[in-house]
Amino acid sequence: MLYKKNAETKLSRELFENPTSEYRGTPFWSWNCLVTKELIADQLEIFRRMGFGGAHLHPRTGLETPYLSDEFMELVKYADEQAREKGMLCWLYDEDRYPSGAAGGMVTENWNYRARHLLLTREKKQGMCADREEFLSCIAAGGKPAGYYLCAYRVKTEKGYLHSYHRVSGPQPDFDSKAAEQREGKLWFAYVELMRESPWFNDQTYIDVMNRKAVERFLEITHERYYEVLGEEFGKSIPAIFTDEPQIKGSMVLPDGESEADVTLSFTDDLPETFEKAYGADLLEVLPELLWELPEGRVSVHRYHYHDHLSERFVSAYCDTIADWCNAHHIAMTGHYMSEPTLYSQTLRLGEAMRCYRRQQLPGVDILCSDPEYSTVKQAVSVARQNGREGVLSELYGVTHWDFDFKGHKLQGDWQAALGVTIRCHHLAFMSMEGEAKRDWPASINYQSPWWEKYPYIENYFARVNTALTRGKARVRTAVVHPIESYWMSYGPQAQTKLMREQLDDNFRSLIEWMLFGLVDFDFLSEALLPEQCPEGRFTVETDKEGAALLAGEMAYGTVLVPGMRTIRSTTLERLEALADAGGRVIFLGKVPALVDAVVSDRAAKLAERSVVLPFQQYELMEALEEERELDIRKENGDRTDNLFYQLREDNGCRWLFVCHVGRKNNRLDQPEVLQVRIRGSVQVTCYHAMDGSVQALEAEYLDGWTQLQVTLFSQDSFLWRLTEKQGDGAAEPEKKQENSIADPAGRQDGTMVSSGDSFPVKTGSLRPFYGLVAGNGAASGKQETITAVIREPETVMPAEPNVLLLDRAAWRLDEGAWQPEEDILRLDNSIRSILGYPHRQDAYTQPWRIREAPEKNQVSLRVEIWSEMDTGELKLAMERPEKAVIRWNGTLCDAKTDGWYVDSFIHTVPVPGLVKGKNELLLSIPFGRKTNLENMYLLGDFGVRLQGTRAVVTEKEKKLYFGDITRQGLAFYGGNITYAMHFTLEREQETILRVPHFAAPVLEARVDGRSVGLIALAPHTLRAGKLSAGRHLLEICAFGNRFNTFGTLHNCNEEYKWYGPDSYRTRGSEWSEAWCVRPAGILSRVEILEGRPDWKGEEK
């Protein structure tokens, strides 16, 4: 059990103020180098100071320590010991990189376990075995076959629809005449083809995830190895093991019904046998129906059964096998599956996402690129609720790049918390930035990011939210039958089915958004899981207050929606009929299913006659769901909000209500929304301020069975309320606040914020006004604020690090060959690899631990030109592995002895002589082999940098810096922190508020007269500085940096590009810019000094 403290009848104030490790985030810790105990100890301490509760030990690109070796396992054991000493948790990861299953290629060294698919082609394939028996014999003899011949088909079409077909048995037939094909049908050959070897799988392949023996071999190599070394800590300091992106080799579709293009189908060797056992049909006899549409609108039950069976084979072989092993070994299976969000993506890679979670102890998801995948989370959370799981994990913040700010961290975490995510697995924390590792889907949520010490501001907040939202049980009365199986029916040729499939996906997405943004929570029902969750003889239950409800595991739903489905299972209908008979509500949205179990039937239509039938439209749906509503939030003009999510939980006689913003809006940051919050029932409301751990009773009004409050929200605000049954006429008494403040691992970051990310009620009706941190100081209202000073330029601006000139281009030569023209260093690295016959460095790249050590036989020379407008003193050159290089600076041989590091401990600094005015030359000679990394270098010093097209010139540093983009003020590549110092004068004593309207920084920290007064990260960009005396005051604001302009995709000029991995640094054509595409940084405009409300009482929070 992860959340043992939740067994207490009430959330304690101590736990809410100071959440323990299980409630805290646990990042992907990227083991991507030669791992050492020193690195482990140092970085776990950094994680503790960042507010994390542990880390996932995740081997990734760059790992040099042999995976699962004795050395590797000793390091894992040491990491667990260090985590335990710090009161943290050690989360395991089951693969070398991802997707899970191949154990770094060790499983698929056995060719029987390699991924495969069925290839249907008009061409005879060479290198194929004659049949499966010959294929197996070839493998047993050490051969490397490409696959084997399965059968052939005669396929006849009319106007793109399947007219007739039959299987051709026996050996491969020969091609015949066109006349014969016109008479008998076109000849198609079916082969079982093995996946090709890939450097991503360390020159092996992915696993056959539908082969249970292959999965058992994966368990033997990986899980049993961890259990052997760490089994005593399973379920204690080691709560779970993460499986990442397992997937089926997806089935494709034909472009159109007359196409002769090759097409592949998901397959495993014994699929025909298990298909026949399940459905009584020979899959190979009916295979063309999987690809071609039947005429006259007829549907293929075999296509439906095929997709259903694929999903079942995958889930039973992979998901269930691993979950059962984990259950027997007292450790939770967590992690996520590939391509969960859409009906299309699930069909392609999983069959059905929800089925995958049926035995998983801690279901998980991933959210990359900050995409709003509400469906992904909803599916996993629904099964977790129904199966009584205590939490859901999300791998979040991935692929957001170096300049993703604290607003993004809060917003992305908030909406997922509202939907039910309890474990935040941050993607990701680099152990090292050496070589390709620095391009492994940044940013690094670790010490390389200059803001790392301020991260408890985010992490403490979510930990506190978790202490409440992991308690009790979600209150949800509405369910939606998941429409994935109807999508399978339409999975045919693009020309004939694409629009239909797109409509199904659009409806799927729309329905989710209508309900979530409309503040009516729901769960999905998986038709495959429902018979087990709702067994025979116990379909419905009569609740005390809400009436009849459909049982689904530990949940009960009084209303069930059937959303425009083509087919529905008879087992689902049976349960919906029982619900309708008991007085519950069934709502058919859009078309009533005309098929039952993919066969024409009027059974659903008969149920619809005694149910609610609505058009597939938002208004009709939301009107019909009003009686299910628990929460209503409206704007001042009466409109319902359109950018909030919520979660409501029942917990030992109370309820928890969490409400948050969902995404960035383009509204003004300084303009709040005044909203009316209505909660069904008469309840007393206590606000649990998750930003600082304080607790406060709120006043409310009661009208017509609803509790009403008015709140003021800024665009990243959220609130957490505890609701208890109203006693008498009075409001709840405030819970007494403990005197001690939270023990913050990195110093107190909050408690003095004007906008803390929480929200606070303002005066409503006859209620006594409540002046909280946002609304209660005059800075929030816009109408009552008083600006007492405006600072339009700072007096001094002080970078915290030396300035940097990025050196990412060089002329080059190999050995004693001719010098080649200047080129991007990553490009020239691959040019050299092409000459020497080495694989290119790119996204798919063999791990260093799998590459045998070999002498670096060649020498690469790099010549870098540096232009300067002045002479300088001694500088530092930052580079990787300088000890291997011969360095000459303007012809002078330099000592490569290092004296420190820059940004990452693997990027070392070497003293070099100063620049001379004009052209300077840096010449390096580097031994080169397959494992060599040629990387950018960084010149550090006290100078300025001006970008002139494709040339970066060293200049005198700016005598004075101003508010505005620092990249235009001599700091083009600078990524560190920068402090702005200025004075302001107050005419009288006042409650003082700072406001910084515009900045391009993850977070700001302000100091007044040498005293830290807090952070500015969220709207409205204000911060309470406290009561200040009349006179002159020193204000210092540190704008924390990010590493985009130093380590980002600076030559990728595609503004719509979002998959920022290794290949995004190597774009070509119109996506490549010779000039650097830097992004704005720093405080961009004025700083304002505001006077707070004179009647604000600091002790109120």
Outline:
This is Glycoside hydrolase. This protein is α+β, with helices and mostly antiparallel strands.
Keywords:
60 strands, 23 helices, eight-stranded mixed beta sheet, Immunoglobulin-like, single chain, alpha+beta, 1101 residues, six-stranded parallel beta sheet
How far apart, in Å, are the first and last alpha carbons?
34 Å
Give the fraction of residues assigned to helices.
10-25%
Major sheet: 8 strands, mixed
| Rg over alpha carbons | 31 Å
Number of strands: 60
Region (Disordered): 727-759
Biased composition (Basic and acidic residues): 727-739
InterPro entries: Ulvan_degrading_GH (IPR053161)
Protein name: Glycoside hydrolase
Topology of helices and strands:
Blueprint: H1 13-17, E1 28-31, H2 37-50, E2 54-59, H3 70-85, E3 89-93, E4 116-121, H4 132-140, E5 147-158, E6 161-168, H5 178-184, E7 186-194, H6 212-221, H7 223-230, E8 240-244, E9 263-266, H8 271-279, H9 283-286, H10 301-328, E10 332-336, H11 343-349, H12 353-356, E11 364-368, H13 374-386, E12 393-398, H14 406-419, E13 423-426, E14 429-430, H15 456-469, E15 473-474, E16 478-481, H16 484-489, H17 494-517, E17 523-525, H18 530-533, E18 540-543, E19 547-552, E20 555-557, E21 559-563, E22 567-568, H19 570-582, E23 585-589, E24 595-596, E25 599-600, H20 603-608, E26 612-614, H21 618-624, E27 631-635, E28 644-651, E29 654-661, E30 673-680, E31 683-688, E32 695-698, E33 701-703, E34 706-713, E35 718-725, E36 760-761, E37 786-791, E38 796-799, E39 803-807, E40 809-814, E41 820-824, H22 825-836, E42 858-868, E43 875-880, E44 886-889, E45 892-894, E46 900-902, E47 904-912, E48 918-928, E49 937-941, E50 944-948, E51 951-955, E52 978-986, E53 990-995, E54 999-1000, E55 1004-1008, E56 1011-1016, E57 1022-1028, E58 1031-1039, ...
